[in-house]
Amino acid sequence: MPKLFKDINAAAVIAPCNKARLFSDVPPDLGAIKENAAAGGVIGEAEALLGKAVPALPASLYREYYNNGNRSRYEAPYFARRDAMLTLLMAELAEGHGRFTDLLTDYVWAICEESTWVLPAHNAPCHGNPINCLPDSFDLGEDDDMRHIDLFSASTGAAMAWVWTLGGEILDGVTPVIRRRIRSLLEKRIFHPYYDVAGENNWWMGEAGQALNNWTPWIVSNVLTAVLLCEENDDRRTRALDRSFTFLDRFTADYPADGGCDEGPGYWGVAGASYFDCLELIRDLTAGAADMTGDPFVKRMCEYIADFRMDKGAWANFADASHRISPDAALLARMGRLTGSDKLSALAAECADGSRRYKWVPGNTTYRAVRDLLEPLPEKKPGNEAAADGNILYPDLGVLIAKNSHTGMALAAKGGHNAESHNHNDAGSFILWAAGEPVFVDPGVEQYTKDTFSSKRYTLWTMRSVYHNLPAFRHGEGDWIEQKPGRQYAARILSCENGILVTELKDAYPAEAGLKSYVRRAGLDERGFFCEDRIEFDGQGEVCFSLMSREEWREKEPGVFRMDSPAVLIRPEPGLAVSLEAVLLESKLRREWGRNALVRTRLTSGAFETGTFTLRADPE
């Protein structure tokens, strides 16, 4: 896995403050930013905030995560504050009439008054208070300083840096105290822990050799935004750049060399895409002396999001990801231009869908949000559509994406292991779409709670293999055995040719499953989809296949079932007992699937020693 910065000396490439330039790949144009923000509707969005109070964040709301595991009730007003602050800032810049200044001041001051910018779910105690109860770092002195940056304290720091930079004339007209306070908080909550704290609760730095995930590039991109905008000391800028080189190389050391994101498409936007943001920021900080955006590895990392699209608006959602995401068309266009990727440019045009309007979307990647206002959206050209045919294997990630325009089917079949970032126990599972609709699905993940990232994670149904398109086994008189979490529970790819992935899955199950061999062949052919499972027990055993779908199967004739949307005929192996179960969904998954429940179909065998089981799903 590449380390792009191992041979680059930060001191040799850092540009002095007067040479570094924001968005160095395009002409600087604050006027265009204001004009395009206005064209994208930011003034109307800001007007909708007028007359409304700043959402409250009381201590009791912070403590809910500690008391009952709920994250969302605190996070909703927390994120709303930041989005509103940036929207009011951009609207005032665009309009310039002072209508939004008072409310902008209220939001900035409220965020400054927060005892911490760290979310309750990420709070780490420094002085012995119960974890996740209330924050206990207040920057009072040498023995009580802020030593921890989480995802959203970093993104808050970047947001405040934009306010400090772009809102200078606006806020100084109220009182210079506001920007002085912002700068003081950035020093204590962002720069001090980034420059001076090694490890401790900042596991995302990788000081102890941890396997890193989206936290690293996401945090680094936001810290570098604050550094670029607000840090005026060249030695400290060099320190920030040097630290960033180290953290980013630790991140890619564990990233698949094929560019695949094991956290799924939803997290790619703050994993691979945030890594790309970091590269743009490094280019800006070095005045182009360190520009890695054209590296082949970066191109592979970016193209993942194009390859994993199953159909318009739908992605292969392994791990903690939704199948519905809305990629940033301007970001994709920029990636396509800077990496030389035609497929990213084509996807950008499709995601833009003919729109020529810029849209202000603040979010938690604010360098990207502002940069997007200067990126022209590409026009869709005939013959330049994202691929609807072909087979792509990500050998390091262990995933095959196969598409067949003749049948209208798209398949994502995975090998992998059960210690991937944001892992589900799903080694060997698959996802199938037909005619733009789901056939066999990965349910995704429910709203995050305290249990999601605790020892209880793999008791949650969405994480278990029996709620993915996988079997459970019973050996002798024991219980049904499903997959377990851990790096040792892994698939081994035997071959991948002509859109057919062949994996040995015996080791994805614990020894008590009694498996001597379990080989799965999954792929597309000219008729449709097939999956063949060859199972050999040490003695006798039974198998129970689970298949997750949005629609219920209806028996059309003996041994043949029909799904209405899409119109697909499903033929399981004859002789298996078929049973259906409704799996009720909570609010987040109900929104994603447009249903109150998914359907879990179980196909159960009798006892056998060696058997082959075939499943087909073909367009009707």
Ranges where pLDDT stays below 50 over 5 or more residues in a row are none
Q: How many discrete structural domains?
A: 2
**What is the C-level CATH assignment of the largest domain?**
Mainly Alpha
Principal-axis shape: globular
CATH fold field value of the largest domain: Glycosyltransferase
Q: State the major sheet.
A: 11 strands, antiparallel
Report how far the terminal alpha carbons are from each other: 44 Å
The total of beta strands comes to: 20
Number of helices: 19
Q: What's the average pLDDT? A: 94
How much β-strand is present in the residues?
Answer: 15-25%
Rg to the nearest angstrom?
Answer: 26 Å
Describe the structure in your own words.
With 620 residues, this protein is α+β, with helices and mostly antiparallel strands. It has 2 domains: 10-372, Chondroitin AC/alginate lyase (Glycosyltransferase, Alpha/alpha barrel), CATH 1.50.10; 390-619, Distorted Sandwich (Beta-galactosidase, Chain A, domain 5). It is 34% helix and 20% strand. A hairpin with a 2-residue loop joins strand 11 and strand 12 (500-504). The chain starts with 9 loop residues before the first helix and ends with a strand.
